[in-house]
Amino acid sequence: MAQVYRITEQCSGKSFECEAGQSVLKAMEQRGMKCVPVGCRGGGCGYCKIQVLAGEFECGKMSKVHVPPEALKKREVLACRVYPLTDLTIECRPPSQPGLASKQTKTTALR
Amino acid sequence: MKKGVMRPGHVQIRVLDMDEAVKHYTDLMGLIETDRDDQGRVYLKAWTEVDKFSVVLREADEPGCDFMGFKVVDEAALVQLEKDLVDFGVDVEQVPEGDLKDCGRRVRFTVPSGHAFELYADKLYTGKWGINNVNPEAWPRGLDGMKAVRFDHCLFYGPELAAVYDIFVNVLGFHLAEQVLDGDGTRIAQFLTVSMKEHDIAFIHHEEKGKFHHASFFLETWEDVLRAADLISMTDTSIDIGPTRHGLTHGKTIYFFDPSGNRNEVFCGGDYIYPDHKPVTWQAEQLGKAIFYHDRVLNERFLTVLT
Questions:
Q1: Interchain contact, B63 vs A108, CB within 8 Å
Q2: Whole-angstrom Cα distance, residue A34 to residue B284?
Q3: Nearest CA in chain B to A40
Q4: The CATH number of the domain where A67 resides is what?
Q5: Complex ipTM, two decimals?
Q6: Which of residues 26-85 of A touch B (CB under 8 A)?
Q7: What pLDDT, in 10s, does the model give residues A68-91?
Q8: Structural domain count, chain A
Q9: In this predicted model, what pLDDT tens digit does every residue of B280-299 receive, in sequence order?
Q10: Is the pLDDT of residue A111 over 50?
Q11: For the whole model, what pTM was predicted?
């Protein structure tokens, strides 16, 4: 049996299990949960950005546009590329950062 | 093709991990690796394409699209189009022959949406892959995965659609096939063609410049699209949406992501366009149906997940 870690998302209070070697986003999707938005699942679009508040983890390759070095220092990373090494507490902030559509775009207004 | 721009010729896509990307574009999508260069770029083509490559992968720390290139009929047309672009006030940059292997000189320019495009007249003609040009068989054996037929078009997201329209239609000779208009009559999506295809390139309005929505590859049949969906599941590839049908263009489609998060489409069908066809218009309040004809609802991801 693979090691299993518990991931807790602070804003929603939801938690789910994640196997070692599995990304946090994939584990969340497999369990039918929606506390982090799902984008490309490839570290490219920045849609699943979270901050890891507690716990240790490894990261796969992520777009430098969405995770510049200063973000990485603050443990602001993409859930699709976060592989837990311990239980994690994460926070998924409401989308207001650059890289996500601004509220004023016409495409946004159409939704 | 009235100004000599013939067809989409290539797209250069940035990927985070080259090995993973090559595996995706060859094993899953069925493109064929044709070369590599000393910058580490990998050259690929679909089997029906007659030139040496149509997709170039470049490893970078940020995914997305570097540029899309259009092939023009000959050098004289290239010279004229370059002059027309300059006269229109577009800054052009010269990319010398051989910068992309076995490709002639390219004229590069950036349009106000923030996307870079190129025109070129020459690329090494290698013929269709795996079949002869004399008494050809129907298809070659040994194709992998989805067996993509050709690189077909790209969709870009960015601002200044009217200015982009002016360059593509008035300078480069594209034809507006379909559009989406908002309540004020502002065009928020434009599907442009230089051929009988319903689009060779498309733009959707977005505040941020230079965003890449997808590169699309043609398949012959709906059965092929369903088979592509099976392969996406078999390989645990990140899916976006589909199989479904678009209202815009009426193509039958599935969207998924490469391992770096760049969106890909494979599709079949789609309307045909002659130069006397008037643009088809979708109203913005019908955008859900325009994009996903069956669900009639947009998924958030289609509008916001970009590289």
A1: no
A2: 28
A3: B261
A4: 3.10.20.30
A5: 0.91
A6: 37-45, 47, 61-65
A7: 999 999 999 999 999 999 999 999
A8: 1
A9: 999 999 988 998 999 898 88
A10: no
A11: 0.94
